[in-house]
């Protein structure tokens, strides 16, 4: 597991990722990535969306889906719409929406990770890399078995 002190808090995704994404006029080429210390363990996929009706359009989050079996990291991917100069993001500024993709009711628990959850976060990179072919389905099965007690 990478520790927060071992990574850049603010980083970018370069051309290798962004070259296939249509670019709005006035937007920088890279996607700004904010690495947070937070992880999420969820039985459902989570939809990331930009904030509706923001006070400005200097940046906006990208849209995407997070499946905890593939990654538990809650990082923010921002399209930066100011080509020159600097912008300041105040602490507490909402950067994106996170919407659970389900019609079922779940109780949200926001707390520090326990040892069991931290063990998964350490093991997951291995599960995603133990084969030469995509293994998402198999990793999902391992994830479901590992966290079965949380889903009941």
Provide an overview of this structure:
This protein has 152 residues and is α+β, with helices and mostly antiparallel strands. It has a single domain (1-152), classed as Deoxyuridine 5'-Triphosphate Nucleotidohydrolase, Chain A, CATH 2.70.40. Helices cover 21% and strands 18% of the residues. It has helices spanning 15-18, 115-127, 136-146, 148-151, and strands at 10-13, 31-34, 46-49, 59-61, 64-66, 76-80, 97-100. The strands form 2 sheets. It has a 4-stranded antiparallel beta sheet with strand order 1-2-6-4. The model has no long low-confidence stretch (mean pLDDT 86).
How is this fold's topology laid out?
Blueprint: E1 10-13, H1 15-18, E2 31-34, E3 46-49, E4 59-61, E5 64-66, E6 76-80, E7 97-100, H2 115-127, H3 136-146, H4 148-151
Antiparallel strand pairs: 1-2, 2-6, 3-5, 3-7, 4-6
Short structural description:
The protein has 152 residues and is an alpha+beta fold. It is built from 4 helices and 7 strands.
Keywords:
152 residues; alpha+beta; Deoxyuridine 5'-Triphosphate Nucleotidohydrolase, Chain A; 3-stranded antiparallel beta sheet; 7 strands
> Low-confidence segments, ≥5 residues, pLDDT <50?
none
Question: What oligomeric assembly is this protein in?
Answer: single chain
How many helices does DSSP assign?
4
CATH class: Mainly Beta
C-alpha end-to-end distance = 27 Å
Shape: globular
**What is Rg?**
17 Å
Overall number of structural domains: 1
CATH topology: the name is Deoxyuridine 5'-Triphosphate Nucleotidohydrolase, Chain A
Beta-strand residue fraction: 15-25%
